[in-house]
Amino acid sequence: MELTDTTPANPALRTALADGVETWKPRVQALARQIHAHKEVSFEEVRSAQAIAALLEEGGFVVERGTGGLATAFTASADSGGLTVALCVEYDALPDIGHACGHNLIAGASVAAALALRPYVEELGITLKAIGTPAEEHGGGKVLMLEAGAFDGVGLALMVHPVQDGLTYNPAGTSAQAVGRYKATFTGKAAHAAAAPHLAVNAADAAVLSQVAVGLLRQQIPGDHRVALYVAEAGHVTNIIPDRAVVHFECRAFTLPEYEALLERVRRCFEGAALATGTMLDIEATEPLYEPLLQDDALAAHWTEAMDAFGKDTSPSAGLSGGSTDMGNISQVIPSLHPWLSLPGANVAIHSHAFAALADTPEAYGVMFEAATALAWTVAAAASTPTERERFIQAAYRRRTVTQEGTS
SS3 for the chain, per residue? Predict the structure, then answer.
């Protein structure tokens, strides 16, 4: 049969992919539970990365460990030429709180989809990569890997992300905010707090003033902008006026111009605090900038059709109110899909102990495997639709390099 842009996905292949997910279900669920139990934070996901890579090797993938110079990154490949597809795998936990963002479910969905697709890479004419991307919560693993060439040649990239109950499964038009994270260091002059306070320059006062200024600023910024901060250091004993204070802060907005404007206003809050107290100020970035998330419309349509088959709510979304991901950086240069998985019964906020517990329940794993099947179906549909396939091939990522002749 000659394929056209309106040809439905091959029913036999869809059934085979769903059966593939079912075959690997016990192993993948055990893997996801192991990841949830170990709670390895950014750049320290040693056991998780090893376990995922080992299962993918068992499923017929060739695994490169330490991709992009990151010890806990990997690339599992099944090479058949043609269109290159990347399934992104996340597995880092939050400090202290564990998998309160459901990265164990993200890993499980991508791994199960990859294992199900592996026998059909030649039929689909794809090179399939499951790319282990550490440090999403803090550190920007995908940003570093993108810069190091891990996504060179990739024409489309996919992953999923759990959220609380009640949100639509339709990702079209949804996004995530740009976020930048910084450390502000105030330097003053120490002195005895009782004998010579007049000789001090109080760095802790600057930290307090910066918090007050940012708090007042919040009334004047758009409702979908976010600023958060905490004081990491502001003295150690009561009888010494501190000469050093450190404040960590972040800014978020849904577009880069809005983000840059917000960052400048927040920077002025810190500069004003330094001026008022006579302290010196240094501000430095602590992590790569996470860019806004772009959802590819064609991939979103395939995903939504798949979720309709599972009886999920795929009504149009009003968008999300907050949150950021380093998948945003991938989506800016590669057609991408990052849909949201509404966990049954999860009527609590993500990044909470309660959500971490709900990410390790039978209901959560049920949704994870539905997502794995939908990811596999989405890849198959995209690879089998001629105009889409050609668009994705043409979109294959090529890093800009600087040579003596200029930028290429």
Answer: CCCCCCCCCCHHHHHHHHHHHHHHHHHHHHHHHHHHHHCCECCCCHHHHHHHHHHHHHCCCEEEECHHHCCCCEEEEECCCCEEEEEEECCCEECCCECCCCHHHHHHHHHHHHHHHHHHHHHHCEEEEEEECCCCCCCCHHHHHHHHCCCCCCCEEECCEEECCCCCCCCCCCCCCEEEEEEEEEECECEECCCCHHHCECHHHHHHHHHHHHHHHHHHCCCCCEEEEEEEECCCCCCEECCEEEEEEEEEECCHHHHHHHHHHHHHHHHHHHHHHCCEEEEEECCCCECCCCCCHHHHHHHHHHHHHCCCCCCCCCCCCCCCCCHHHHHHHCCEECCEEECCCCCCCCCCHHHHHHCCCHHHHHHHHHHHHHHHHHHHHHHHCHHHHHHHHHCCCCCCCEECCEEC
